[in-house]
Every structure is written in C-alpha cells, then in structure tokens.
Amino acid sequence: MVSAILILVLVLVVAIWLVIEFKRFRHKLLAVFLILLILFTYFSFAGVVKDKNLDLKTFDGMKEAGKLYFLWIGHAFKNVKVVTSNVIDMDWRMNETVEQNKTIESSDVVK
Does the pTM exceed 0.85? Predict the structure, then answer.
C-alpha cells in the first residue's frame, strides 16, 4: 500500500514539474519568436527604405516609408503564395525515361 502511494506521489511530482517546464519552454519560445520578428522587421524595413532618400524624421517621410514597407510585405506574401501553388501543381512522379534507364542499368549489372 505504501509503495502505491509513493508511486502516485512521484507521478504527481513529475507531472507538476513537466507542466512547469513546458510553460517555461513556451515562454522562451515566444520570446525567441518575438526577438526574431523584431530583427526581421528592422532589417527588412532598413533594406526597403535604404535607397529611397526619405526623411524619416518627418511625418510625411514615415508615412511614405510605411507605404513602401507594407507594399513590399504584400508582394513578398504574394510571391510565397505563387511559389507554393507552383510547387503543389508540379508533377512529382518519376519520369518514365528515368525509370527505363534505371531498369536498363540494373539489367546490365546483373549480366
């Protein structure tokens, strides 16, 4: 009886520890994701407005930079959509001539 209670207590302790570690891992994962998102936004924004001669100290300059950046983001998502649809529509089966060449090569090896 004592061993069953001891096992139950150990299982509960391990379960509580795993739940706490999972929450900590989720928070770390969220922090890493947010850091990467901030870095991506900064470097992509800097790359988009680099050669545009915009005055980012004025409201009009920031407005124009924002328009350019969101236009760039929209085109990037559109390009990802096009590439994904092209990959889905591709014929991924092996070519018949490749299969025939493989059978010819394997029959030559057997001889």
Answer: no
